[in-house]
Queue: 3 jobs
Job 1
Amino acid sequence: MRTHWHRFSLFFLTVVLLVGLSALRPQAVTNERLAQGKLARDYIQAMELVRENYVQEVDYEMLTTAAISGMLRVLDPHSNFYDRKAFEEMRMEQRSQYFGIGASIQSRHRGVYIMETFKDTPAARAGLRYGDQIIKVDGESTETWNSDKVRDHLRGELGTEVKVTVLREGAPQPLTVTLERAAVDLPSISSHYLVKPGVGYIALSRGFHSTTSDELSTAINNLKEQGMNQLVLDLRGNPGGFLDQAIRVADKFLQRGQVVVSVRSREGKAGDRDWTAESGSPETFPLVVLIDDGSASASEIVAGAIQDHDRALIVGEPSFGKGLVQTIYPLSGGTGLTLTTARYLTPSGRLIQRDYSSGSIYEYHFRRSANGDVKQEDRTKSQMRRTSLGRPVYGGGGIEPDVKIEPGTISNEQAAIWTTGLFMFVRKLMAGEIAVAPQFKRFAIEFDHQPQSGEFLVNDDILKAYREFMNEFIAQNQYYGLTMKMVDDHLAWSRGKIREEVLLAAYGLDTQRRMTAEEDAQLQRALSEMNNSAQLADKARRMSKTSKK
């Protein structure tokens, strides 16, 4: 099941940071400016009428925030206003860190639960673990809170304390720990390892932040030391970020002088620019890039540049289609906004931004099909461009993969089972409360585990215990609408999902990914296309050398 909760906050491409209002050049007063002044007075008058006469008392700051947000929404889906808290969180994410306890949380069955704790963080050192239900924060009950509200209360100023009370499966009473908030790294690269001998895998999935390029270099060098001579670069789910980091990432794989991206601003404005690769020694090993509909902005710049220059094959699903560039403008009082100030083009001249003129913001971000995917047969000739080798590529709807393959999707029934009964079963399994599987009990997450293919296999006895648990769970929680027929229809899927959850609980997300790589259909197809990708890149290099003579 895919989650896209980051789309509103992270789907923008940043060009300039810390551009204040002082950077705006004064203009002569014109008739248009006078008209703007009249509108401003109308706004102030309307604001005062609402504040003084509305049926109940309203907050002035709330009205102002809503007014600015509404103004920006009229422009495009990516120009946004951020209040003080949201603006600071955005800035922290861009710095690849935040201040908190170091745990991933989610809303599951009737509460908010810890799904993973991160290495060397306050949560891990305190022994918090997968399945712990957060029932209080600083003594305040979380019974009516969602995961966002819990997260907001767990984060705070560096060095401050937060008291967390959790309900642990199998524990006789709630556990309360006092944690000191610390800087928690939020790296762009969530995982890197050898998926098989000689073939590296790098998941660049958490945005393009200030550390992204350096992280990638470190990961590549680490994998080279392990014998890597081929690479799968996974950009699935990557929502974008800094333009300069996208350029530096693409630079690692392109020949010097090759165009990475072109930025075009409003007519008459300075700022149009073409960025070219500058590395004198790019990586030349065979490469395949993975994308999906969560790959946006900076991710699409990297994928588009690599595709246009025939450096590698792109595998997966069509990308999101976000070709607008935002500049961050801090405002007074710690608020800020992101304003679309330019468009970007891939090296072949493609504008990959998809249409946003119809449909709601929600449809644009979360229901892509409702907003209208751009089918290849519907694209005009004007949107068609060619790669270095003459292959046709199209703009106007994201990056179309060279090899399209759908992911393993999760049905609504499976999602309902997973986030409720199955999750609660795994909690009991990891607490040692399932009699047929005492070996599954874990007291804390084990970091840096070297995975073994035969670990935590879900046998028939465990599956039988799962069915018995689900029968009782359904009887006690009928409001979910689950039935035993649903459970039996998805029993084979549940076997694999139970193991995935157990691996996450025992070893963390990175190890879970390593041990379930064979079940990732898109990754497996990327591996099978490696030779074809290498041949494509070799042909492009030979043609480039010939043209330079």
Note: The chain is about 35% helix and 20% strand.
Job 2
Amino acid sequence: MTDLGLITRARRRLQREALQRKNNVVLRTMACQVSQNLPEAQQKPIVFFNASTRLSGLSLNAGFSILTAWSLGLQGVPVVHFVCSSGLQPCVLGTNRKDANGAPPCADCIRQSQAVYESSQIREFEYKTDPNLDNQLEESSLDQLMGFEHQGVPLGELVLPSLRWILRRHNLADDEYTTTLYKNYIRSAWSLARQFEQLVKELDPQVVVLFNGMQYPEAVARWVARGYGIRVISHEVGMRPLSAYFTEGDATAYDLDIPADFQLNQDQNEKLDAYLSARFKGDFHMAGVKFWPEMSELSQDFQATAAKFKQVVPVFTNVIFDTSQPHANVLFRDMFFWLDQILEVAKTHPETLFVVRAHPDEARKGKASEESVSQWAQDRQLDNLPNVKFVPPQEYINSYDLIRMAKFVLIYNSTIGMEASILGAPVLSAGKARFTASDVVWFPQSQQAYLAQLEELLNAESVEVPERFKINARRFLYWQLYRSSLSFEEFLEPDGLWPGYVKLKNFDWQALLPKHSNTLAVIAEGLLREGDFMLKENQE
């Protein structure tokens, strides 16, 4: 690294540290205001747990969690935070990607936790060894680790999504680093499970609230809580900026239960059209990240190539290690297996130009995939196939223009399938998505049925799109944007330095009461009275 690069990094580190100190003062101040105004608690507690979204700052989900907890406390609900105190060796964010036994940055994380949980009731958990577990793990192979159980707890299964996420791949390498890290995750998961079970037995909470529910610390807590019949609610980043959604199902897979009689009125249609107009230009963010820094038109060379074929079929892929993928794999073993099937079909249809589009997040700095569609394309020598065009993640072509020229669209479980339906394109989905249960796309019930329908679509002179697909897609997207995405914009704003990290706005503690916030009112209704965590029309 050049001297200029070192200077830039040092400057950014100092900026972040200064911002963190400033933000933490605001956090502590608000926490003290809340604690001074807490009424007497007269019901069973709610337990919050989020150990996977921040190390040295306030992440979006950490913000959602603490604001919700403060609000509940002000309503007379006792809240207990289950807080890591060097209890994960390592945690997911603290994993050293070069050294499986590398120590996580516990000191920084604990310091940040002290600010976040100022004046809050907490129960810390530490790392506790178990010689019996160590003996069982010692000689375990990678395959054995995937199915590893200890005292009835499926530890191998519970930590696997996190392992795939941190290694940025689905198919794991059978090497020393991977197996060592897998074992360390399992040890930490077991240590956490024992302590969380103790907490549950002691407190008998009415609800447990978790971030995501798929990352291994929270996944373990979810498993333990459900084993005791305790209701578990998970939360994740919503579709709109600074928004969250809460669900009793898995946060990475939940289906929206949209009333059958819900139809968009004129105002709602106009609001959705305004959103789509910006989105189709690439102007949108998810979790503070803008996936499309720019969008370029389809080049003349591409259009000339496409014109040589009878039809164009885009193939939109996902990031293979995303925590939504385990839910998606119901027809095919995984996305790459599906891509292999598509490739074999392509070889038998030279009249069709298949355009395989890698997800732009696949090459995101700091989160680049180690098992990528780009590598798959290289290994399969797509460049040698005249009717297959590969679009790498760094190439910001307008996917919506590609959809508009397509005979039909192939997706695994990407959100762009819903958008394609809105544009009036026929869509065939290979993986379960949030919208596949809402009659938005074709989603066959078996691999055989999928391949048969694919052949039928390729051979058809034209494809008729059911009108209900577009209608249902608009209903689904509107509901997801304006009913299930709960805005925290009145409390949070981007920190200005770190995408996905936030700071508190200036507000009075009374703003956290449900009567002053539709978002917090909906969450309270969902947690305390088993509501659906959805805004009503008059709350949008």
Note: The chain has two domains: 3-36+45-128+198-257+485-539, 291-484.
Job 3
Amino acid sequence: MWKRYVLVVAVVGVAGVGLSLRPGDKVRARPPAESAAGAAVEKDAERRPAVSTMAVQASTIVHRVNVSGTLRAADEAVVTARSAGRVVWVIGKEGTPVRQGQVVIRLDDTDAQARVRSARAALEGARARLKQAKASATQQTTATDSGIRNAEAAVAAAEAALKQERTNAEAQEAALNAQVKAAEAALDAAQSQLALRRKGARDQERSMAEQSVRLAQATYDNAKTNYDRALKLFKTGAIAKAELDSAETQMRVSKAQLESAKEQLSLVETGSREEEIQAAEAAVRQAEQGLAVARANLKQLDVARGRVTIAEANLRQAKAGLDAARANRQVNVVRDQEVLAAETAVRQAQEALTLALQELDYMQIKSPVDGVVSKKQVEVGQSISPNVTLLQLAATDALYFEASVPELQATSLRAGQKVELRVDALAGGQASLYSDSKTQAIEGSVEKVVPVVDQQTRSFTVRVTVPRHASLMPGMFARGSVIVARHEKAISVPRDVLVEKGDRRTVFVVEDGVARARSVTTGVVDGNSVQITKGLAVGDQVVIVGQQTLADGDQVRVVTPGR
């Protein structure tokens, strides 16, 4: 007699494997019996074991290694003082979070403040002296340049004056010499006239007199032409007045010589009377007086030469003034040196102020990193020395996750593998990367597996790089899931589908209403799913409910077939 089985069908959820009972699957209803034979068959089928099945499908299987451990600071920092002093304030207890640049210790800065005030006063004084030195140098340079320009102008004027005096002297000398020569010629003519008056004339003398007239006429014509040309040049400013006077004198002398030659000719032709002789004698006396006056006028050259001498002296004096003005440039060099010295003093005062401000800044000791106080070694009122550790900080800008991994699992870990971390301390409203998660999920990567096994626990230490996150602190407990491998298009089934007897693992597959036991080889376990590497194929109907009571070859009734 067939034993009747009572079956309770449970719905099994399979996460992440792609193998599940699909929504909408229904138990196949048997068609109503159309005959007595059909009723008998139906009754016989109801006596068969009822099972539920699912169709085997290919999906992605992720091989994970779960670990747990602690967040640790990648870097440790110490806080020291750069100057000695007395502590007037220190940050709170150990575990206090700090930011980079935050003041964590204050020293008594009374003396440092006084040094800053003194350095600032010294800097202001140095700047004032520099300003005065620059003003003095500028004034001296301006005066020197002006003196040089004035001296150069005086030299140019003296040179022009000397040139003019020399020109005037030369022209006056030429004119006076011409006057003397003219007076001498007039005297000679007067004396010759007198001799003729006294002796009478001969044919030879008449011929000579006529020749003298012709010569005197030619001389006069030439002198007249020269005078007219000189007059035009003088009017245009081309020659000096002295040159014009000289041309005029020569013209008058030649005219007088012409008249004398004509009178001489007349005497030769007519002979002389007593009154003519007396007149000739008077003319000689007059010519002698004219010569004496002309020679006396030569003394005027001494005055002109004296003016030249004075002009030369003025030029020498102007040049001496120019040399003196140029020599004042050496004073400018001294002023420039004073400016350089004042600038050096300003730089030194600025450096002293910078140093004083730096020492004042040293009175406020700041955190070198973002982190938390891990150890406090100083208290208010304590006198400290430079380079002595006052605080120890665990840096939070660079954290890592450290966990122990059993040696059997450690062999599958490699540097660079992705790791999902969850920090329990960030649950309950804390920031989360996943809105539906109660704990913080963070992506890291395996940095290294320390190649030393713990002899007691038979485990290795794995170190995971953790990205910076404001909520993370050293010492937090975290759980990690290392993604070792991903198997694409893999066959998997729920773990409770397996029927294990010793080392043998079996699954039941329904073929034409008959349960067939198949030995399978398992692979990666992913949550509630297990990879089947051998024994199943895509599309096989695997028994998921009722398999524990089946035997190979049992006829079964499928109540929830998978598709």
Note: The domain at 1-74+398-563 is CATH 2.40.30.170 (Elongation Factor Tu (Ef-tu); domain 3).
